[in-house]
Amino acid sequence: MEERKHLAHVSGILDEQVLLNLVKAGVRAETLAAVSLIPLVEVAWSDGAVTADERAAILKAATESGIAEGTAAYEMLGRWLQERPDVRVIGTWKEYVGALVKSMPADATLVMRERLLGRCRQVAEAAGGFLGLTSKISAVEKARIEEFERVMQPG
Hints:
By secondary structure, this protein is mainly alpha-helical. It has one domain (33-151). Helix content is 68%, strand content 0%. The protein has helices spanning 2-11, 16-24, 32-35, 38-45, 52-64, 72-82, 87-103, 106-126, 139-151.
C-alpha cells in the first residue's frame, strides 16, 4: 500500500490498477525511471539476444535520461539486459504510458513519443544489417517499434 502511494506521488498516476500492476511487476519509486526504457530493452531482445552494441545504446540512453550508474533503476535495467523482462513488465509499461498519455497535453505526448521511438530505432540500428546490404532494422524490431508507437498515440 505504501509503495503504491509513493509511486503515485513520483509518477503522478492515480489509477490504482496501474499502480498495483507496477508494484506487482517489482517496480518501486526508485526504479520507475527504468520502466520508461522498456521499449528499448524489448527492441534489443526482439531478435532473441541483446548484442553488445544494443546494450551500449540502451545504457547511453539511460544516462541521457538521468539514470545514473549505481542507482536502483540502472541496476534493474542491467538485469533486464541480461535476462529478458517478464511479459508482465511490458504490459505494465503499456498501462503506465497509457495513463501518462491521458494526463499529458498532446504536444508533450508527441515529444515523448518521438524521443522514445528515436531511441528505439538507435537500439535497433546498433545491431546493424549485414555488410550494409540489408536494412539495419530487422522486420521483428520494426514490428516492436510500431507496437510501441501505437501505445503512445495521443487521444
